[in-house]
Amino acid sequence: MENQFIFTLLILLLPLASFLFLGLAGHKLSHKAAGLVGTICLGIVAVLSYYTAIRYFGSPRVDGAFQPVVPINISWLPLGKLSFDMGILLDPISVVMLIVISTVSLMVHIYSFGYMHGERGFQRYYAFLSLFTMSMLGLVVATNIFQMYLFWELVGVSSYLLIGFFYTLKPAIAASKKAFIVTRFADMFFLIGILIYGFYTKTFSFDFTDAENARNIAGAAFILPTALFLMFLGGAGKSAMFPLHIWLPDAMEGPTPVSALIHAATMVVAGVYQVARLFPLWIQYAPETLHVVAWIGAFTAFYAAAVACAQSDIKRVLAFSTISQIAFMMVALGVCTEATTGHGHEGSLGYMASMFHLFTHAMFKATLFLCAGCLIHAVHSNEMSMMGGMRKYMPVTHWTFLIACLAISGIPPFSGFFSKDEILSASFAYSPVMGWVMTGIAAMTAFYMFRLYYGIFWGTENKEHHSAHTPHEGGWVMTFPLIFLTIFTLVAGFIPFGKLVSADGQAYDFLAHFDWKLGATSCLIALVSIALATYIYKGEKQPVADRLQAAMPRLHKWAYKRFYLDEVYQYVTHQIIFKHISKPLAWFDRHIIDGFFNFLAWGTHELGFEIRGFQSGSIQKYAFIFLLGAIVLIFIMIL
Amino acid sequence: MIQINCLLILSAIMMFAGIFGFLTRRSTLAILLSIELMLNAADINFAVFNRFLFSGQNNDGFFFTLFSIAITAAESAIAIAIMINIYRHLKDLSADKLDKMKW
Q1: What is the domain extent for residue B47?
Q2: Could B101 and A617 be called an inter-chain contact, meaning their C-beta atoms sit closer than 8 Å?
Q3: What's the pTM value of the predicted model, to 2 decimals?
Q4: Domain-by-domain residue ranges, chain A?
Q5: ipTM of predicted complex
């Protein structure tokens, strides 16, 4: 069984090889060759991932559940009882993640041929994409929390490199630094959490069912909520949970395909994946803390949706929408109350809902970002005011964008409806308050997505801007990924996801437990929101929107400025931390610590300068000093 | 009979004359002579102590003096050889000019 899956090692090694090859020898290749190398490697990885999924989900269940498979696990750094391992773990969620990552990554590789055409550093771009893909795949197949952390950091680095890809642009550099520092700050908590966890449980492994591990973990039950919450803080940084979300909107300075891959579909869900990975511990030892996570998620979802309603940069809208949707997944995990899919079903429904939404969201959000890329490619601007009326010029982008919008709004039969509906029913099962809050946020989602849609494809056309340069579709390399991902969005809802992934591995037939009333309500609310957005934003002139803005200027401005959270951070870091902590510390370092060592160096130097006069080269002076020394010695002896 | 004190004072005077000469004379030859003085002072001490403390028991002190004189002769030969070489190179034997081997 184990040896059948040894080929999964290739899934990690191929992108690594491609990264090393393109990174070292890329500048000698032509753009086309470099892109082909990266894309072909990724194509093979994608094929292998699909093959793994088919093989894995085709293998027989034991006790009704798919068994985790560990094809390879090498002890990398043994430290007494603890050991840092490196390996591959295949279980339902990691296999699903393999599919998500390799699919979106492959589409982004293909798309980048068109989008990045002729850019300086094209080969470097593909090298970084390979690095990112390798790290993300390594993260999801990690067999232990430490390996996960290692690849977690690698993912952060490649994100940093790709955000700052246009390294001559000031905003790109600032954004890459911001992303790196904020996530790194959060990762510090992750590391502390891991260390606490490892110290008390004597294991890093994800194998919680192993008898010895289970005993050790049960012995450390008192510390687990703390450790898990610290790890969640790391995940909150990567997954842009409030208040650590500030880096994600700025990360949109990177190339758009990168935003689609890293900042919408894969890396930002790492935090969700981490919580899902440790879900058995959460649910058994820290259920109260898990509900705290749910409320953090709910607030983030609301905040991001509110901000998204007022942004004018299309990528920013999508970024806030991503934050909001990831928060949905967090909520889904957080509202779980039990680990088994037994009689009650709803208690653990959130786990499956979260993974399902992760899967569908990756597909339709990647579509949206790639559409945004096409639009930016066509009009050379991110601002909605530069667009308007684009449906005439870019039919493919228009239709794929519309379908993705419908999916994210939760309109059947698109995939988003199914996953979002499961999240809502999980929330209602936890508490009606949470359920209605999430339904309200889902309505806001539909509203701002259609505001964006009408703003781009309908509304007032910016004739002045378009007259100089008629917008047009990119080549097939840019439209093919759109269509491919849209097909996924269309059919993904009908995948019997509950049968593949659930909290305890038992097959769960979602349709059999489908709450028709809830589904109809959420669908109706979404339709009302869309109708509202249509009413306000579809026309050439937008009197209602203008009037609303005039009626509540302050609210609009606050939302547009993201409720001034960046300014708050700016104030806290610059005015308080830098001014009152860092500066005195820097002064202490420069004057006291450096001063002490400079004094030592200066003293030795001066003393040496004085002493070297003795070594005059004159034999008689040497003899004299020798004599003095001898006399002193004699005196010491006598005394 | 000459007292041991007189002989020891003689050797001490020779010793300090040698040290003084070694430290103050400029000429390398004079320095070499000073070294000879110091060595001879030590030889006198050997002989005197053997004569006055171990008379009739053994003659180690005398033999050691002879041994020392032989070594002194060899050392003088080497020292003079070095001096001739230095003179050939520098045309000078003043000790204060020979300060090339410093920092």
Answers
A1: 4-90
A2: yes
A3: 0.78
A4: 2-560, 566-638
A5: 0.77
